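note to self — DONT lose this again. spent like an hour looking for the file last time. sequence + predicted structure for the chain T wanted, 478 res
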Amino acid sequence: MASVSNAGPSAGMSADGAKVNMAFIAAIVAVATIGGFMFGYDSGVINGTQEGLEKAFSLSKLGTGLNVGAILLGCAFGAFAAGRLADVWGRRTVMIIAALLFLVSALGSGAAHTSLVFIAFRLIGGLGVGAASVLCPVYISEVTPANIRGRLSSVQQIMIITGLTGAFVANYVLAHTAGSSTAPFWLDLPAWRWMFWMQTIPAAIFFFALLVIPESPRFLVAKGKDAQAEAILSRLFGPGQGAGKVAEIRASLAVDHQPKFSDLLDPVTKKLRPILWAGLVLAVFQQLVGINIVFYYGSVLWQSVGFTEDDSLKINILSGSLSILACLATIAVIDKIGRKPLLLIGSAGMAVTLGVMTWCFSTATTVNGALHLDASVGPIALIAANAYVVFFNLSWGPVMWVMLGEMFPNQMRGSALAVAGFAQWIANFAISVSFPSMAARSLPMTYGFYALSAVVSFFLVQKLIHETRGKELEAMQG
């Protein structure tokens, strides 16, 4: 976090020149982003366990897709429920519930002895991931100054990728030490079960850390708890600033009702507000470009074209490490060049790199029933795949979560996040569950679809997305 809190001469000042308490802000942002780490770890732990799951539960390709994708249905409903529950119970309270769900899921998934039980516990974990995915970014956006909000909100994506990479490293170490993911390990249980149980450590840290951070002041104002909100805002933005901030928030909530889903409709036309359509485009196309295929199925994918399990798990670690570096670059520029330019750069870069991967896989041959890339093509595919990961994490990875956390007006933020988050995870589920069977039919066509989605996303961003850099949350328009 040191690199964030010292990010330039204005890092300790708000947009209006007031001195802010960066140490306090950095501390609570650090706690909130553990939710991003859990999001990443819970999503990435499945990568490297598929062989164990298939052997333990005698799964077909469709069955593998359902076991891998089960968490995503939980994520969809967790995101949908969390956005609204956060308006009722508070951001921090719902994040605490999410931490408990992570713990239950980790213990149950590792212990499951049938596919149905495994799916049930992964659904529970998905509820926690979905809640964390929408609430951690909005919590961060609600406690940080506008001029550095993009940088601090981008830390969420770094923690997501760190969680993914942490899962990849843990999976690699466990499989390498045991001999393979299905070999016996501690207590004579297969290594793939311990891959899930390792998650209990960060989940417990997240739970206890959440107990010491404050509730979102914007939620407190919405609930009429102005005194509590003023105390927190004064500690965040400096003595004497709290009352003014409360007044700004109160003015932005200048309606006579509690937030509700009808706020998503234009009061005149009764149609969905344009800002919600923009959010849905960001949420859905972040998944249609296929990024989570790399993170969920990377090990299986690389093994299918000739790499060993050990090398495939190492490639996962490489992809995760490059992703973290890309997110660090985003932090450096997001509050300087803005959100929209980064999205456009990412769409263009992903379209090209996915196009290269499509070509590479179109040259694959079948050897003993398995795909095989020519020695001259394999390195090109590997470079293109990692360049694709870099472009995603330089742009759509962090920027989508930043924008969803800040682009909606206060009155509709919880409801809009519920809908956008639900759509994002449903798209994730559809892409992830369909991949094994689609890839079995035609890997080039599968990646061609992801490339086409990246091309379409470029033009949709140009048309629908408006820049939010430097704007106060109270200034966002619906």
